[in-house]
Design goal:
The structure is a single chain. The protein has 264 residues and is α+β, with helices and mostly antiparallel strands. The protein has one domain: Gcn5-related N-acetyltransferase (GNAT) (Aminopeptidase). 28% of the residues lie in helices and 23% in strands. Strands 1, 2, 3, 5, 6, 8, 9, 10, 11 and 12 form a 10-stranded mixed sheet that branches. Strands 4-7 form a two-stranded antiparallel ribbon. Strand 5, helix 3 and strand 6 form a beta-alpha-beta unit. Helix 4 packs across helix 5.
C-alpha cells in the first residue's frame, strides 16, 4: 500500500481536533455544496451540529499544515456506535429515516456520516487512509451493520431520476434491513421504470462514495430524503458486514477510492 509520511489517521483527541474537523466540513458542506444549519458557525467557519459530542471523529492530519489554523485536517469521517445512540437522543439519520428495521436485528450497529476530503487531496491517498481506518474501526469493535446518509448534490430529483431509479431497482435493501425515508421530505426513488434506466448514465450520476459502498455489497433504504438546508438529496446506505463476499472484504481493506467528495 502506498503511504505518505506526512499523513496521520487517528481519532480526534480534544476540542481542537474536533474544531479542525468542523472546519473541513464547513469548507466542503457549506462553502462548496451550499449547505447551512442551525448550529453552523459562519463567523468561525465551523460546520457543527448537536450530535458531534457523541460521535467518534476519525481525522486525517497533514503535518505540513499549521494546526493553529485548523486547516491541517484534510479528511474526516464521524462514527456513532449504537451503544451511544440513546445518550445522543437517537441516531442522526433518524431525522430522515425510520431505523426500526435495523434496531430489530439486535446486531452491533455503527452510523457513518460527514465523510469528506479537502478538494486538493481528492483522487489521491486521502480516501484510502480513511477507508482503511474505517475498516480497522469496524473490525476492532465487531461492527455488524454500517449505515448512514450519503448525498447527491442538489435537490432537483428530475436531474437525479436515472441514478435514484437505478438504486431503487437494483440495490434496494432486503426487507429486514430496509429503512424508510420519513414522510416530511420523502422522495420516492422509483422515478423511472426499470426498463427505462440508462445504466451508464445512472452510474455516471452516482457519487463515488455511494458506488464504493455498492461494490462492498451495500444497499439503500426505501426513498430518498430532500435536505434543503444542506442542498442535497440523501439516500441511506446500509451494509451488512457478514454478507460481504471475500472480494469485497479485500476491496474494503485495500482499494483506493478516487475523487470522493462528501457523504452526509
Amino acid at each position: 500500500m502506498n503511504t505518505d509520511p506526512h499523513l496521520t489517521l487517528r481519532l480526534a483527541r480534544d476540542d481542537r481536533d474536533l474544531m479542525a474537523a468542523q472546519r473541513l466540513r464547513y469548507r466542503v458542506f457549506v462553502e462548496e455544496l451550499g449547505g447551512d444549519g442551525d448550529l453552523v458557525d459562519h463567523d468561525h467557519r465551523l460546520e457543527r451540529d448537536r450530535f458531534d459530542p457523541f460521535f467518534d471523529h476519525m481525522i486525517l492530519v497533514d503535518d505540513r499544515l499549521d494546526p493553529a489554523t485548523l486547516d491541517d485536517v484534510i479528511g474526516v469521517y464521524r462514527l456513532l456506535p449504537g451503544d451511544r445512540a440513546v445518550a445522543a437522543g437517537g441516531f442522526y439519520s433518524e431525522g430522515e429515516y425510520d431505523l426500526d428495521a435495523l434496531r430489530r436485528t439486535g446486531r452491533n450497529l455503527v452510523e457513518l456520516g460527514r465523510s469528506c476530503v479537502a478538494a486538493e487531496h481528492r483522487g489521491g491517498l486521502a480516501m484510502m487512509y480513511l477507508w482503511n481506518g474505517l475498516s480497522e474501526y469496524v473490525l476492532e469493535r465487531g461492527i455488524e451493520i454500517l449505515f448512514g446518509p450519503a448525498s447527491f448534490h442538489g435537490t432537483d430529483t428530475g436531474r437525479l431520476a436515472q441514478a435514484l431509479s437505478f438504486l431503487h431497482h437494483h440495490h434496494l435493501a432486503p426487507p429486514e434491513l430496509r429503512v424508510t425515508a420519513r414522510v416530511a421530505s420523502r422522495q420516492p426513488m422509483d422515478l423511472l421504470a426499470a426498463d427505462r434506466i440508462d445504466k451508464k448514465a445512472a452510474l455516471q450520476d452516482i457519487p463515488p462514495l455511494i458506488k464504493a459502498y455498492l461494490r462492498l455489497g451495500g444497499c439503500v433504504g426505501d426513498g430518498a430524503w430532500i435536505d434543503h438546508a444542506f442542498n442535497t438529496t440523501d439516500v441511506c446506505l446500509v451494509m451488512d458486514t457478514a454478507q460481504m463476499a471475500s472480494k469485497y472484504k479485500d476491496f474494503y481493506s485495500r482499494k483506493v477510492i478516487g475523487n470522493d467528495l462528501a457523504g452526509r
